[in-house]
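As agreed, record copied across for absentees:
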Amino acid sequence: MFPGVLAFGGPAILSPDPRRRHAAVAVLGIVSEGCADGLQPRAPEIVPLVVQALRDSSKEVRGAAAFTLGQFADYLQCAVDFPEMHREVLPALFAVLPGEPDKSVQERMMYAMDSWLEQLEEEVGPYIRPLLDIVYLALDGEGARPAVREMLLSATASAAAAAGHAMHPHLADLLPRLERCLTAADDQGLRPRARALEVLGMLVSARGGRQAMAPHVPFAMAAAASGFDLDYSELREYGHGMFAEVAEAMGEEFAQYLPACAAKAMASLDLDDGVVYDSDEEENARGG
């Protein structure tokens, strides 16, 4: 199948017919999981054509290009095995994303951006500012869907995990926006709220985070703790994760928070939401 895909995709990606261009770009993303071994060595010649398609006149082609770039990051490990390739992909995504008129295409571009950023380490530094500019647009406006805010906060957490110290100079602008996310109590706002906790944890545990985030740790701990009052397992999960990141960064100074964190950990162990039992007997033994 793979040779046939390449035989079709090569000429069709440059076709004057937008339907053929769309099919050519989309099929590359679709087969990237199952045909990764064959496709990956060809990535250096294919990726520039897909990047070019981000500016296609057809929204279907642009959306397929963003989807395919995300798939390439996830399944071909392009950002890892071709260390310079991100310099071609990410600037192109940052350039087209803010002005993309179609919301569904924008979301696919955000997926691609998140997938590539997640695989970078120190190289993520130059992308912090353009990433945050896009994050601020979504968090400050009223039109962004909660799923979009969650995706962008996930990308921010990925960048902070890789090079959080490069994000510390932007704390004055970033933290007030995270604080707004952390006040959400409605169902749609809880997933972005959980991701905001993840960002805080990464900022604290990053190199230099203990010093840069020291004035903000009490708020971060209180924000994580308040999420346990809501019946939402993901908030508990990310709350525990943030406790762990802060504990690692603070060392012995975390002792003041330890009793409360231990109590919440024990309470979570008594819950069974999200637990899958192997048999009815096991569930009955747990009182299910």
User: Anything to note?
Assistant: The two ends are 48 Å apart (CA to CA). The CA atoms of residues 118 and 158 lie 5 Å apart.
